[in-house]
């Protein structure tokens, strides 16, 4: 995946707080440490103009075969639900928020194994109200995917017990 900051403010911000690419690299290693499935990060390349401003960056990961969760056949949702529940429970136990938990950022292979991608908004070791807001946003973002697919929503909500019951009723 390549990251290309669109304006000078983003380029400077990325140089100060770290590029999306670098944040994805760190998050992928964090996921691997916690045994949350994600492609293995292989390399990062960042290019800077004027020595200070991040002009573009690239992240290379292992290739994973599969399809986005949004394209999954209806009869496979129950098969992937335990793996998804386990990964989300691990994330909750360690106060990890994906930050962009939508059905295009979860890949499912032919063996019904899942992998999370697009980790640049992931945050680790969140505490207190910051954790609750981030977790609620992950739940909201995940469940928003299924408004047009009530069968998937019913199966996934039944198998994945979100701690906040309010969000389950938003579909």
Number of strands: 6
What's the average pLDDT? 83
Sheet with most strands: strand arrangement: 1-3-2
Count up the helices: 6
Order of H and E elements:
EHHEEEHEEHHH
What share of residues is helical?
40-55%
- How would you name the oligomeric state of the polypeptide chains in this document? single chain
Derived from helix and strand composition plus strand pairing, the structural class reads: alpha+beta
Largest sheet: 3 strands, antiparallel
Radius of gyration: 17 Å
How widely separated are the two ends? 32 Å
Strand content: 15-25%
In one word, what is the shape? globular
Low-confidence stretches: 164-171
Question: Gist?
Answer:
With 171 residues, the protein is of the alpha+beta class. The protein has helices spanning 8-17, 20-34, 77-93, 128-144, 150-159, 165-168; strands spanning 2-3, 41-49, 53-61, 67-68, 106-108, 114-116. Helix 3 (77-93) crosses helix 5.
Task: State the main characteristics.
three-stranded antiparallel beta sheet; 43% helix; 6 helices; alpha+beta; 171 residues; globular
Account of the 3D structure:
It is a single chain. This protein has 171 residues and is α+β, with helices and mostly antiparallel strands. Helices cover 43% and strands 16% of the residues. The protein has six helices and six strands. The strands form two sheets. It has a three-stranded antiparallel beta sheet with strand order 1-3-2. Helix 3 packs across helix 5. It is globular and about 55 Å long. The protein starts with a strand and ends with a helix. The C terminus is likely disordered.
């Amino acid at each position: 995946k390549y990251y290309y900051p669109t304006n000078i403010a983003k380029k400077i911000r990325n140089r100060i707080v770290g590029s999306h690419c670098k944040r994805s690299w760190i998050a992928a290693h964090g996921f691997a440490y916690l045994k949350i499935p994600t492609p293995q990060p292989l390399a990062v390349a960042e290019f800077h103009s004027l020595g200070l401003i991040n002009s573009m960056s690239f992240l290379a990961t292992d290739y994973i075969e599969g399809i986005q969760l949004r394209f999954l056949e209806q009869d496979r949702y129950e098969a992937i639900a335990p793996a998804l529940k386990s990964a989300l429970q691990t994330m909750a136990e360690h106060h990890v928020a994906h930050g962009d938990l939508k059905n295009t950022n979860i890949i499912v292979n032919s063996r019904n194994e899942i992998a999370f991608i697009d980790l640049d908004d992931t945050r680790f070791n969140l505490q207190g109200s910051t954790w609750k807001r981030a977790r609620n946003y992950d739940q909201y973002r995940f469940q928003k995917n299924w408004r047009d697919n009530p069968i998937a929503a019913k199966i996934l909500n039944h198998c994945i017990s979100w701690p906040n019951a309010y969000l389950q009723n938003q579909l």
